[in-house]
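A note from the maintainers: we've had questions about how concatenated examples are separated. There is no special marker in the raw files; a new sequence line simply starts the next protein. For clarity in this README we add a label.
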Amino acid sequence: MQNVRVKELMVPLSNYATVDENALMVEAVLALEQSRERFDHKKLKHRAIIVTDSYKRVVGKIGYLDFLQSLEPKYSEIEEIEHLGSAFTVDFLRSQLEKYSLWQKPLNDLCGKAANCQVREFMHIPADAEYIGTDATLDQAIHQLILTRVQSLLVKEEQDVVGVLRLSDVVETLFEMIKDCKIDK
């Protein structure tokens, strides 16, 4: 794994769905759909959208959970939302629905939300640990993915983001390596 480099596994930014931070939710959905049509059908489909600023610099990303959370703005009132799922009981999670009056009108105004919600309002702003260099090894990438618990890392060459290293591509590469192993029985 020391010989495999991130740049060999990453999806180039040019192949990824990207939208400007001022784009509307519906534009992000359409960008994701268009990138999926262009992408290699032998690989798993993209499940995230990269957000750029007016200078085309990457400033965020939108994953499925970010999208779902955007449909119910009251989630922003819950502190430490990233840690709720693994730390609490089902009863506690249900109590949060009541306490914050979540999903009272869950999807009634989906079209209105898509038309009026800008992606910068719900995009995930990556932490420093969510970036990795093009020359990093597969070992380093696996370590970073495990510790950050993210689905992808933004790949940098010097100061510019040039691609996305997806957890799915890393795992598929490992599956291929395992299948190529000679196992003595």
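[label: protein 2]
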Amino acid sequence: MRRQAEMDDRSTQDLREQPLRPQDVRTPRRRRGFWIVVGLVFVVGVVWWIRQAPQTERTGRFGATGAPMPVVAATVDKGDVDIAFNALGTVTPLATVTIVSQISGQLTRVAFREGDMVKQGDLLAEIDSRPYEFALQNAQGQLARDQALLENARLDLSRYESLASQSAVPKQTLDTQRSLVAQYQGAVITDQAAIETQKLNINYCHIVAPVSGRVGLRLVDQGNYISTASSTGLVVITQLQPISAIFTMPEDNLPPIQKRLQANATLAATAFDRTGNTMLAAGTLTTLDNQIDTTTGTVKLRAQFANDDFALFPNQFVNIRLLVDVLRDATVAPVAAIQRGAPGTFVYLINPDGASVSVRKVALGPGDATRVSITSGLSPGDRVVIDGADKLREGAKILLREQAGDAGTPATTPPSGRRRQRQGGP
């Protein structure tokens, strides 16, 4: 058995020392090469599928490649275009008055309600007037006393003058009597001024509105003692009719505004709400500031509004549209038709055949949110693309369709709400 085991060990050792044959090495290499080729084919297929996906999507949306693109068209027309500037403004009252008492005393009555509209001269509050009435009586009594003394001094002066003509009294006595008369005359004038002062104080006990407007919240309650040294007023009155709005304009917009004002033109100003969609009030430009703010390069302007319906409220933020001039009989195109790219400003002009478009460079003039004037490049009657221009090129085939919301066949593709700016060329 030992010999049999030795023979088995020798056979195993011979097998280990036996060299590999070429066909045994070549088989694994062939398998690795096969799987590498399969992997490359898979990667190439995935890349091809990704590149073909957009084309497949376009084909599925618009039909076969090269099919006409559905677009919406508009006709270039002639019309008037407003030359207007837009700015942000703040509603500012023409007058804001803090009611402060001109005399000291106890507040006996508050005659207004918070938020009331008052007119100039309306009673707002009353202060206890009794101390001033007593002072008035005292001044009147002092006046009567001084008037009596003045009258007596005048009679004595008349006697002295008669005696002095006969050299019966010294001249010094006559001069002294004349001086006494002048003193009583001055005392009478002082007493009369004191009486008028007390009458004025009594008048100040009745506090009235100096301007028309709306009263705010009450700052002092009835029963408090009011002093003229106090900085706290009774109430604040804000004038609301008329009212103004202060807004700023870039200094570049100042020359045309000044030119119109120097020609005594009335520039219309319209106030819109914060969104710019709802009109609040219509007014006129009244004045502009006397200097430009160097930090912002802007100048302040003031527009005034009647504010009959109280649509404007103090410190309210508004959008101001200032109409400077009107451009008459201009060539007008929709803003949605204007494209911008490498050629500059251009439109897609629909060719006479109605089935293709051409790129047409245009020069723009003044305009508003929906229309813009064309100074060159288009003529009245030309048709331009206002929706669906994103994928158009020079000579592209088109299919005209109705705009969404128009009468007739509904649009196959709703027009985009906002025109996209083109970055590249046509």
